Amino acid sequence: MLALVFVVAWVAAGTRGGDFGTADNLRNIALRSVALGLVAVGQTVVVLAGSLDLSVAYVVSLSAMACSVVMAGQTGLIVPGVLTALLLGVAVGLANGLVITRLKVNPFIATLGVSLVLRGLLNATFDNFAGAVPEEFQALGYDLVAGIPVSVVMLVAVVAVAWFLLHRTPFGHHLYAVGGDPESARMSGIRSGRVLVSAHVLCALCTAASGVFLASRLGAGAPWVGPDGGYDLESIAAVVLGGTALTGGRGRLLGTVAAVLILAVVDSVFNQFQADPFLRTLVRGLIIVGAVALYAYRGGRR
After folding, report:
1. pTM for this one?
2. Which among 74, 60, 41 is positioned nearest to 227, based on CA atoms?
3. Residue 152: its pLDDT value, please?
4. How far apart are CA 231 and CA 223, in angstroms?
C-alpha cells in the first residue's frame, strides 16, 4: 500500500508540475514522519499487548516543556533536560500501567483520565512558550548526516530497537501472548501485569522522545504542541492502518512505520496542491477506513 500511494502521489504531483521526487521533498516527508513515528512505535507496543494509550498527546507536551524549561537555553543543561523529559515520560507510563493492572481500570478510561490530569497541570502552569533550547540542541531537529536528517536517524534507531524487543526477546513473545489471550498467558506462567506495565512505560518513553524532538524544532516548549498535533488519534490510526489488531496479539511494527509514511506522503501531496485541509482529513479518513476494511475482508476469507 505504501508503494502504491507513493507512485500515485508521484504521478499526481507530476501532472501539476510538482517536484515530488526531489531529494529535498523526500527528506521533508521523512522529517514529517519523525514526531508521529516515535509516538506510533510506542502505541504499537501497547496495542499489541491488548491495551491503548490516549495520554500520548499530553506526554508530548509535558516532555517538550520539561526539556525546554530545564535547558533554559544553556548548552551545559542539554543532558539534564533530555533526561528529565524521558524520566517524566517513564513516570507517566508507569502510572498508566499501574492504574490499569492494579486498579483494574479499562485502558481507555485510565489513559484518558491521566491525559486530563496532564492537561490540567500544563494549562494551570503554562499559557505560552516557556524555556528555550540552546542552538546546539536544535541540530537534532535541523541538521543532516550524510544528507539524512539527524532526527530520521534517531527514528530509525528507535524502530530498530523496538523491532528487536518485539521479535527477538522473551519480552516480545510475552507481549504478543498477553495481547492474544491474557488468561492463557497468565496460566502459562507469564506475568501479564508486569508485561502490560512495561509496554506502557516503553510507549511513554517513545512519546517523550517525540516531545524532545519537537522542542528542538520549535526552540522552546509549548503546552499545545501535543494536542494540536493530534498524536493520540493519529498514532492509533497509524497502528490500525499498519495492520495491527486493536484487540491485541496480532500486528507488525514495520506496518505501523509504513502507515506513518503513507500519511506523510498524503500530507506532502496536499501541501504541493495547496488543497483544503478539510479535504486532506477526508482523504486520510478514507484511506484508513479502506485499509481496515481490506484487512477485515482478508481475515474473514482466511
Report:
1. 0.93
2. 60
3. 95
4. 14
